[in-house]
Specification:
heterodimer, A: 6-stranded mixed sheet, 4-stranded antiparallel sheet, globular, disordered N terminus, B: mainly beta, 7-stranded mixed sheet
């Protein structure tokens, strides 16, 4: 399949372990954040979002934490599965606009069976 | 399958040429977004259309242009191509565009190679 080919940081975890992927965002005025998953050969897929008035949000097996003080986001994946292997990147909205986003460069998650 | 289709899947062309990438949004979606994903810059927002009108603009070069047609499909035109334009181009669609986030569904992308 297609791959972007970026020289991305890689996180390798054992199947069943928890994964934590980090992202530093750039603009303190950003008020909405999204985590995306991109599998090889596919377009990005929405995982979970969080607004700046929250510091934690949980989904199914995923949790996003937001630390506005240090402009840091993290994505926690519980009980990581082989199907979670992908590139993960965060996005922040630009100028308060919900149609324009700045995307981080991503982290490649490699789940070992 | 997101429901967003893009053609062609691959495109190889030469510097100085012009190409057109096509996107069909999910049924019922009125908004279309174009993104470029290159080796050194990650995913970048280019432009958004809503119901035929340009709604938001990102880092789109003047050599690039887009439009959304009455049937809601969209085309991204890239002209005077340079080696650095080689990238994956993604289209995404959403139901609406406004003051709240509307989940964007991404197509499979078009890989453009400029030789």
């Amino acid at each position: 399949g297609e791959s972007v080919g970026l020289h991305l940081p890689t996180l390798s975890v054992q199947e069943g372990d928890n994964s934590i992927i980090n992202c530093a965002y750039s603009n303190s005025a950003s008020d909405y954040f999204i985590w995306y998953k991109q599998e090889s050969g596919k377009g990005p897929q929405f995982i979970i979002d969080i607004r700046s008035n929250m510091d934690k949000r949980q989904g199914q097996r995923v949790t996003v934490l937001l630390n506005k003080t240090v402009k840091h986001l993290s994505l926690q994946i519980a009980a990581t599965q082989p199907g979670d292997s992908a590139v993960y990147f965060c996005a922040e909205n630009i100028e308060g606009n919900f149609n324009k986003f700045y995307f981080g460069s991503g982290t490649k998650l490699n789940v070992k069976p | 399958d997101s429901g967003v289709t893009q053609t062609p899947k691959h495109l190889i062309t030469a510097t100085g040429q012009r190409v057109t990438l096509r996107c069909s949004p999910r049924s019922g979606d009125l908004s279309v977004y174009w993104y470029q994903q290159s080796l050194d810059q990650g995913l970048q927002f280019l432009i958004q259309y809503y119901n035929g009108e340009e709604r938001a603009k990102g880092n789109i070069l003047e050599r690039f242009s887009a439009q959304q047609f009455p049937d809601l499909h969209s085309e991204l035109n890239l002209s005077s191509l340079e080696l650095g334009d080689s990238a994956l181009y993604f289209c995404a669609s959403s139901v609406a565009a406004g003051v709240a986030y509307n989940e964007q569904f991404f197509g499979p992308g078009t890989r453009l190679t400029v030789l």
